[in-house]
Design goal:
11 helices, 2 domains, six-stranded parallel β-sheet
């Protein structure tokens, strides 16, 4: 089979890989949709030959198939896989991590928190940008029949990450939420927050992404290149600030603005990866009684809950997608995605 490999320095190629065979406790899925996530860009942009180990993810440094939002159909089961839970033909999403399987985190579906050794599919293990993918049966999450494979791919990382972040914020219908960064995660958060009844204020430097946010229900749009973000958010909230803020950008300026624009007793959630932020603890936090939380992806259970939420509320997650690609168009796809002006992209098989 052919698989997409990130070479670094904004280069990738299609390489030959052996078709996988499941071992004990594993399954092979035939990929139907493999989403493109902002986290892919750190591997795409990395120095040539850096590999996942140079980016703090461990691994052998050997080339792996990219893509950590896999969704497809089970085509082979290894020894010991309980056929009452999975069978050939099962529609599944993949929770793209493998841990020890025995620690408290693995047993509760938070495999990415395992401290005994971690595989991240698409980074340190072969991911979804290929026809087939092998992973533990325990990492497979059912995809409801009503949802398309591309929606399942979105839920497998970016959209699921937004859902969990809103849970961490304990978002309520009466809240005003500021969402910093309207990439795939931020757009998902905007869409979900509106479905939950909140008022959503979307912040981004891309006019194209702000337009997508508006189409998905954002009540107001703020562009830091033309607006003072904190002043604009205070004006929109009568000077009080928002009840909840969510940073999906990972940028220092956005994180600081999220804290400064949140009202006394409010809650701020950081979900964007990378970079740092410097806060004045007394001025920004203590004397305003702020709560700051962090959220890193989701558990298998929450991934399934997100899918049920999308199904029950009939949320049109497909509207996140601005581009759909074939595998042989991967170079063109990532060149465009790297500009960070589009909605979500997905490779369809």
């Amino acid at each position: 089979m052919k698989g997409v490999v990130f070479l670094g320095e904004k280069q990738l190629e299609l390489r030959d890989f052996a078709d996988p065979t499941p071992g004990s406790g594993e399954v092979v899925i035939e990929i139907k949709a493999s989403g493109m996530c902002g986290s892919d860009l750190k591997f795409y942009r990395a120095p040539r030959g850096a590999g996942s180990s140079a980016l703090g993810l461990g691994g052998t440094g050997e080339a792996v198939v990219a893509g950590h939002e896999p969704c497809g159909v089970v085509v082979a089961l290894g020894h010991g896989v309980e056929k009452t839970l999975l069978r050939e033909g099962s529609r599944v999403m993949n929770h793209h991590y493998k841990g020890c399987g025995q620690c408290e985190h693995c047993k509760t579906g938070w495999t990415q928190l395992c401290r005994k050794g971690l595989t991240v599919y698409g980074a340190t293990g072969n991911g979804g940008h290929a026809r087939y993918m092998k992973a533990p049966a325990s990492s497979m999450v059912p995809l409801p029949d009503a949802l398309s494979f591309e929606v399942g791919a979105a839920i497998s990382c970016g959209t699921g990450t937004a859902f969990q972040a809103l849970r961490r914020l304990n978002l309520r219908a009466e809240d005003t939420l500021a969402v910093f960064g309207q990439g795939p995660v931020g757009l998902s958060a905007t869409q979900f927050a509106k479905a939950m009844g909140a008022r959503v204020l979307a912040v981004d430097i891309s006019p194209e992404r702000l337009a997508l946010a508006k189409a998905l229900g954002a009540d107001a749009l703020i562009n830091p290149r033309t607006d003072n973000v904190v002043d604009a958010l205070l004006t929109l909230t009568g000077g009080d600030g928002v009840e909840k803020s969510l940073d999906c950008s990972g940028q220092e300026e956005a994180r600081l603005a999220a804290v400064r624009a949140t009202r006394t007793w409010g809650v701020v959630c950081f979900v964007g990866e990378g970079n740092t932020v410097t806060l004045d603890v007394s001025q920004h936090l203590l004397r305003r009684q702020l709560t700051v939380v962090a959220s890193w992806t989701f558990s298998t259970w929450i991934q399934a809950e997100c899918a049920r939420f999308v199904e029950a509320r009939k949320i049109p997650v497909e509207r996140l997608f601005s581009h759909r690609w074939r595998q042989d168009q991967a170079a063109e796809a990532y060149t465009l995605f790297d500009r960070q002006t589009t909605g979500k992209g997905v490779i369809l098989f």
